[in-house]
Design brief:
The complex is a heterotrimer of chains A (about 675), B (about 500) and C (about 140).
Chain A (H helix, E strand, L loop, with lengths): L10 H16 L5 H24 L8 E11 L2 E9 L1 H24 L6 H20 L3 H21 L4 H32 L4 H10 L7 H16 L8 H4 L5 H10 L4 H8 L1 H5 L2 H22 L5 H21 L3 H28 L17 H15 L5 H15 L4 H27 L4 H8 L6 H9 L8 H16 L14 H10 L10 H28 L3 H8 L1 H8 L4 H23 L3 H15 L2 H9 L2 H23 L8
Antiparallel strand pairs in A: 1-2
Helix pairs in contact in A: 1-2, 1-4, 2-3, 2-4, 3-4, 3-10, 3-15, 3-21, 4-5, 5-6, 6-8, 8-11, 8-13, 10-15, 11-15, 13-14, 13-18, 14-15, 14-17, 14-18, 15-16, 15-17, 15-21, 15-22, 16-18, 16-21, 17-18, 17-23, 18-23, 19-20, 24-25
Chain B lengths: L2 H7 L1 H16 L10 H23 L3 E3 L4 E3 L1 H24 L7 H20 L3 H19 L6 H32 L4 H8 L5 H18 L9 H7 L2 H7 L2 H17 L4 H24 L4 H20 L4 H29 L14 H4 L1 H15 L5 H15 L3 H26 L16 H19 L2 H16 L12
Antiparallel strand pairs in B: 1-2
Chain C lengths: L2 H6 L2 H24 L6 H4 L18 H18 L1 H7 L3 H5 L4 H22 L13
The chains are: A mainly alpha (about 675), B mainly alpha (about 500), C mainly alpha (about 140).
GO molecular function, one term (chain B): NADH dehydrogenase (quinone) (non-electrogenic) activity
Family (chain B): Belongs to the complex I subunit 2 family.
EC number (chain B): 7.1.1.-
Chain lengths: ~675, ~500, ~140
């Protein structure tokens, strides 16, 4: 299958890896300019290479495989270092390297005054390495390497960059929640090995296609395991809780990892595995339902958040829900299309939010923003493009891709109409909360100035800091604004490549992906008039959200306050994110900790209960202490446990399983 | 077969014995203040020689020596090499860690070498009594090493507890041998399988096997025979813990593999569910126990219990893949665990200045090298791909699921998820800024010995994760050589 | 080859164990049931062959006693190993197929014993006079 001329795909991940090594090992001694240069070049080269590949793409025989050696050969099972290139990969590569490079560029400005500059860029490059590995992998094992690697990089970037404990905890939470997802992914891999004897995409998919009679059954089990993995990485119900906390990381990280690339890995994986999902209606509907529910649920939470980055985080979860919905109705290319446009406008939103935060010297609370339109005009205009795009106003990118998903949901068999309706309502909410953010941040009067003018009393140092800097609200440097401008343009025109046929376009994007994502599902044939009608409805809905936000946060700013009072219970429910974190704490974490205590207390492990204090007391006493300890029943109880275990084991040996070897 | 040729079969042990005896002869002749480190380097050289001898055995045809009590094959060589490497690194770490407070350091080197002899004998012995002698040689060396900081109460306590409970467990092992002899009339592992069919009292053999499982379960600290582990590890000197948490376990696992797969494949209906239970309990108790630990060494002790559980999962697979996975896992666990104890040893020193997780705050700032190494080994212990820790687990669970052990695989995966939590605590502590200025003193400079130890363990962990092909092939050959001699294999032991 | 027979072989042993245990238990219980209990201070004092007890029973001995006792046992056991070797020595060439094999084996063994002896000697364990506080 390998085409005659090699594209040197191995260079794609290895160049960022080299950048990581250089910065990690030597960056401490480098001047900042050199660190920046290394990191930027290490991402620019892959981007240029991808562009080069794209330019000769039509002459390749697809999928284009490149094997670099055998990784594992154990008995009958083996896995290779193989990279594959097809249409889906190319799209992902363009997004990852393109958006990735822009965000690297932006970071050079954003992080200019921070400590640990070299570490930050080393980790970013490490992330690029793993992300590219994930996308290029031709088997699940290699994909899992990238899958875990991006999680690791995300952990490092969330938790390690700041020395705050909350950041460290957020990083840990992200990691541990993702482990739950990995559980599914690993189990799926083991099941693949058990049933197909291989983890290679091409060989698994060809085995499935070769057996048309395979349907449901263990395929569903595998697919559901993969879905669990995807919900972890892509922050879907039930494993979404880590993403809002992950906002502790620096804003460029949120843009790159927690909006544009890593969190879409789950969608990519489902799309990549579509051959399997097509055979399992149950798994597909699970994906659709999870997606729809997450989209709606996260959007409601986003309505009341006051931290600008958290609004965007919940919005990301919600938009990822749309992508899942698309996959769930077997409209994989629509899901990937939304993935692409979302990468543009959500990265832009985060970067613009970062620019706002930068301008306000670290303030993230929208309640003390406002009136920034004139002060940071470039940020304002670029963010406006993103807000319009995500809200689904035609003809921007978000409209095209979201509308396509809703259209496919509407025409899907089964509960498609219900999914469509919830999706539509979520679109309304999306438009509302995005315009809320827009108005709160850029319009009205500057509430920080107002607060500062009132008094110098605010207790929180936050405010004091803002107070100090408020007159220094400044537009960001061009190295940050450049990426914003490019992404703004992409947010506007990015959707045109997939303009649906029903609306007079060619849907070039869908046709391009078709060979890689050919679905066996045939949706009800929709008519052009239906598509036009649906598009019209979603436009109206988006406008309604805008109008309502205008009413609430511009025309009559006292309304939200009143509403939150009259709907106190509901408001609190949303504000506390449905108490899901608390629920998980009570249902999952508390029992584990209880069990842990039980294990230790039950086995008389005094070491943990008294911690270090007893150790310190110990060393000062002489031999008497040992005797005491030995006589305190400790060693006897140990021996007792040992004897008990031995007795149990012998009884089991003899009676439990040995019934057929009778004593006679 | 000539005597010289037979000697080749135990050449690695012979080399180490001679080296150990020489060290013991020189040690008392040295003055009180003379540095013992050259003795350590001599021990290192002898381990290298022993490694070479082990590899040379690969060139010979598999076979027995000395009236069939010793058998060298790919399996024994695999574990010989593993044990030699562990002891090598432990020696280096000891050389690095020892300071002026260390008394009679030469004894420690000699004990490590003697311990290695015992462990090596265990892996190549096919006579249960010789296994027992190897077990005792290795155990007694370890008991003494655990109490080597004689002035330290916790060290003495550790040694005493380990010794008392250890002898208790060894008694089970010995009694098991006696019962098996009573049932089959032989203590030759290779002959037991065929004698079992004609035994008048198969019940004795079953109970004897159960007793052997108890004795070895204690040695590998598998639940419910794990209670001694945290106390023993907490008090023993860190370089010794690195050794005793890996090498004797590897040897005991090798013996267990040989006994259950070569001698008792026919009784697999008895031992497989037992090992299933032990694996599930070990993983769960180990991880839950580690979750709340404040003391780093206790945490790692519980983590080692959990890892013993993962390894036992491979036993239940009843296939050559399972044996290979167990062997491979023993190696990858050894690489990362000895490595992390090298870091712990150097960071806390011979006097163990650091013991709690909070003491490790800011380690990465005090010494980027140690911080980086610690992070790397923790990542491997968590099981992130491209490290030996990931691939070891992957292989173990893949083989278990392949044999239909669905629930055990699920329990194991859930456990490895929980495990991330406590490893990350240590990692986060090492990388956060210290609150206490006293913890900001730079670390003592890393010696050449430590660097060598870290290079070996880190590259080992990476090789096992990135290019495991060679080692996988070795472990697979080991598994095949183990099962090929089976007269009456378990029904599922042959399928792959 | 019937396992029933196998266990029946040991019936006398079983009976003897039952009788022995029963006798011991019954003697203690009977004296406790039948005997009179008068608890005076003299009766409850430790019994030391009729003379009044002096000091604490848990006296401490120098660790050196234990060391020597332990070494004695070690070398004793090591010496005992030579006995079966000596008994079978003449037949060893026939058994091992090599004329001198048994001889060399014992020499190696004795070598190890000697090394151990040398070691404890040089470490000063056998030196009673010298004060080794750290022992």
């Amino acid at each position: 299958m390998t085409s005659t001329h090699s594209l040197h795909l191995w260079l794609l991940p290895l160049v960022p890896f080299a950048g990581f090594l250089v910065n990690a090992l030597l960056g401490r001694r480098f001047p900042r300019a050199l660190v920046t240069a290394v990191a930027l070049i290490a991402t620019l080269i892959p981007f240029l290479q991808v562009l080069g590949i794209a330019s000769q793409f039509s002459s390749l025989s697809l999928p284009h495989l490149e094997q670099f050696g055998t990784w594992i050969a154990a008995g009958s099972f083996h896995a290779d270092f193989t990279f594959a290139l097809d249409q889906l990969t190319l799209v992902m590569l363009l997004v990852v390297t393109g958006v990735g490079f822009l965000i690297h560029l932006y970071s050079a400005g954003y992080m200019a005054h921070e400590d640990g500059y070299w570490r930050f860029f080393a980790y970013l490059n490490l992330f690029m390495f793993f992300m590219l590995t994930l996308v290029l992998a031709e088997n699940y094992l290699l994909m899992f390497v990238g899958w875990e690697g991006v999680g690791l990089a995300s952990y490092l970037l969330i938790g390690f960059y700041y020395t705050r404990d909350s950041a460290a905890n957020a990083g840990k939470k992200a990691f541990v929640v993702n482990r739950v997802g990995d559980f599914g992914f690993l189990l799926a891999m083991f099941l693949f090995i058990a049933h197909f004897g291989t983890l290679s995409f091409s060989s698994i998919f060809s085995q499935i296609t070769a057996h048309p009679e395979l349907h449901g059954g263990f395929l569903t089990a595998i697919a559901l395991c993969l879905v669990l993995g995807a919900t972890g990485k892509s922050a879907q119900i039930p494993l979404y809780t880590w993403l809002p906390d992950a906002m502790e990381g620096p804003t460029p990280v949120s843009a790159l990892i927690h909006a544009a690339t890593m969190v879409t890995a789950g969608v990519y994986m489902v799309a990549r595995t579509h051959v399997l999902f097509d055979r399992s209606p149950l798994a597909l509907s699970t994906v659709a339902i999870i997606g729809t529910a997450t989209a709606f649920f996260a959007a409601t939470v986003a309505l009341v958040q006051t931290d600008i980055k958290r609004v965007l985080a919940y919005s990301t979860i919600s938009q990822l829900g749309y992508m899942f919905l698309a996959c769930g109705v077997a409209a994989y290319s629509s899901g990937v299309f939304h993935l692409v446009t979302h990468a543009f406008f959500k990265a832009l939103l985060f970067l613009a939010a970062g620019s706002v935060i930068h301008a306000l010297s670290g303030e993230q609370d929208m309640r003390v923003m406002g009136g920034l339109r004139k002060k940071i005009p470039v940020t304002f205009w670029t963010m406006t493009m993103a807000v319009f795009a995500i809200s689904g106003l035609p003809p921007l990118a978000g409209f095209v891709s979201k509308d396509e998903i809703l259209y496919h949901a509407f025409t899907a068999p089964g509960p498609g109409k219900l999914l469509w309706f919830v999706g539509l309502f979520t679109a309304f909410l999306t438009s509302f909360y995005m315009f809320r953010l827009w108005y709160l941040t850029f319009f009205g009067e500057n509430r920080a100035e107002k607060a500062a003018a009132h008094a110098h009393t605010p207790a929180s140092s936050h405010h004091a800091e803002v107070d100090e800097h408020h007159h220094a609200i400044h537009e960001s440097p061009w190295i940050m604004l450049g990426p914003l401008a490019i992404l703004a343009v992409l947010s506007v025109i990015g959707g045109w490549m997939g303009w649906p046929e029903g609306l007079g376009g060619g849907n070039w994007f869908g046709h391009f992906l078709a060979p890689a994502l050919a679905s066996q599902h045939v949706a009800e044939a929709g008519s052009n008039s239906l598509e036009v009608t649906l598009a019209l409805i979603s436009t109206l809905v988006a406008l309604a959200g805008w109008f309502l936000a205008h009413l609430f946060y511009f025309a009559k700013p006292e309304l939200p306050e009143k509403l939150s009072v009259s709907l106190r219970a509901f408001y609190n429910l949303l504000l506390n994110k449905y108490w899901i974190d608390e629920l998980y704490g009570a249902v999952v974490i508390a029992p584990v900790l209880f069990l842990s205590r039980f294990v230790l207390k039950g086995l008389i492990d005094t070491g943990v209960i008294n911690g270090g204090s007893y150790a310190a007391a110990y060393t000062t006493q002489g031999m008497g202490a040992i005797v005491q300890r030995l006589q305190s029943g400790n060693i006897r109880s140990y021996a007792g446990w040992l004897a008990l275990g031995a007795a149990g084991l012998l009884l089991l040996t003899y009676f439990g399983f040995g019934a057929h070897l009778s004593l006679r | 077969m000539t005597a010289n040729f037979q000697l080749l079969r135990i050449l690695p042990e012979v080399i180490l014995t001679i080296a150990g005896v020489l060290i013991m002869l020189i040690e008392p002749l040295l003055g009180h203040s003379t540095s013992r480190k050259p003795l350590g380097w001599f021990a290192v050289l002898s381990v290298f020689a022993s490694l070479a001898a082990s590899f040379a055995q690969l060139g010979m045809a598999a076979g027995t020596a000395y009236y069939g009590v010793i058998q060298t094959d790919a399996f024994s060589v695999f574990f010989h090499v593993l044990i030699a490497l562990i002891v090598l690194v432990s020696l280096l770490v000891t050389i690095d860690t020892a300071n002026a407070n260390t008394e009679s350091l030469g004894e420690l080197f000699a004990l490590m070498v003697f311990g290695a002899v015992g462990m090596m004998l265990m892996t190549s012995a096919t006579e249960l009594l010789l296994v027992f002698i190897g077990l005792e040689i290795s155990s007694i060396s370890t008991y003494i090493m655990a109490g080597f900081r004689r002035k330290n109460v916790k060290s003495t306590e550790s040694s005493l507890k380990y010794f008392l409970l250890g002898s208790f467990a060894t008694a089970f092992f010995l009694y098991g041998i006696a019962l098996i002899f009573g049932a089959t009339g032989t203590t030759d592992i290779n002959a037991i399988a065929s004698q079992l069919g004609t035994s008048a009292v198969p019940m004795f053999a079953t109970i004897g096997l159960g007793m052997i499982l108890i004795g070895l379960g204690f040695k590998v600290s598998a639940a419910p025979f794990h209670v001694w582990t945290p106390d023993a590890y907490e008090g023993a000197p860190s370089p010794v813990v690195g050794l005793m948490s890996t090498a004797p376990k590897a040897a005991a696992f090798a013996v267990l593999l040989r006994i259950v797969y070569v001698a008792f494949p026919a009784l697999h209906a008895h031992w497989q569910p037992l090992l299933w239970l032990m694996a599930a309990f070990s993983m769960t108790i180990g991880n839950l126990g580690a979750l709340r630990q404040q003391n780093v060494k206790r945490m790692l002790a519980y983590s080692s219990i959990a890892h013993a559980g993962y390894l036992l999962v491979a036993f239940t697979a009843l296939s050559t893949d399972g044996i290979a996975a167990a062997s491979f896992y023993a190696m990858s666990y050894a690489a990362m665990n000895v490595g992390i104890f090298a870091v712990v040893s150097h960071a806390s020193g011979y006097d163990e200045r650091l013991s709690l997780i909070s003491d490790y705050r800011g380690l990465a700032y005090r010494s980027p090298l140690l911080g980086g190494a610690l992070g790397f080994f923790l990542i491997s212990l968590i099981g992130i791909p491209f490290t030996g820790g990931f691939f070891g687990k992957f292989y173990v669970f893949a083989s278990a699921l392949h044999s239909g052990m669905v629930w055990l695989t699920i329990i194991g995966l859930v456990n490895s998820g929980i495990a991330a939590f406590y490893y990350l605590r240590l990692l986060a502590s090492a990388y956060s800024k210290p609150t206490n200025n006293a913890l900001l003193d730079p670390m003592p400079r890393a010696s050449f010995a430590l660097l060598l130890a870290l290079v070996i363990t880190i590259s080992g962990t990476l090789i096992l994760g990135i290019v495991p092909g060679q080692i996988l092939a070795m472990s697979h050959n080991a598994a095949v050589s183990l099962t090929s001699g089976i007269a009456n294999p378990a029904p599922s032991a042959t399928h792959q | 080859m019937h396992s029933q027979n196998y266990f029946w072989n040991y019936l006398p042993l079983m009976m003897q164990i039952i009788v022995a245990v029963g006798l011991g238990c019954s003697m203690v219980t009977m004296s406790w049931l039948i005997g009179r209990h008068r608890k005076s201070s003299v009766k409850l004092a430790a019994y030391e062959c009729g003379v009044p007890a002096e000091g604490d029973a848990r006296g401490r001995f120098s660790v050196r006693f234990y060391m020597v006792a332990m070494l004695f046992i070690l070398f004793d056991v090591e010496a005992v190993f030579m006995l079966p070797w000596a008994v079978i020595y003449r037949r060893l060439p026939a058994i091992t197929g090599s004329r001198m094999f048994g001889f060399w084996e014992m020499l190696v063994y004795l070598g190890f014993v000697l090394v151990g002896f040398f070691y404890i000697w040089k470490k000063g364990i056998l030196d009673w006079a010298q004060d080794k506080g750290d022992l």
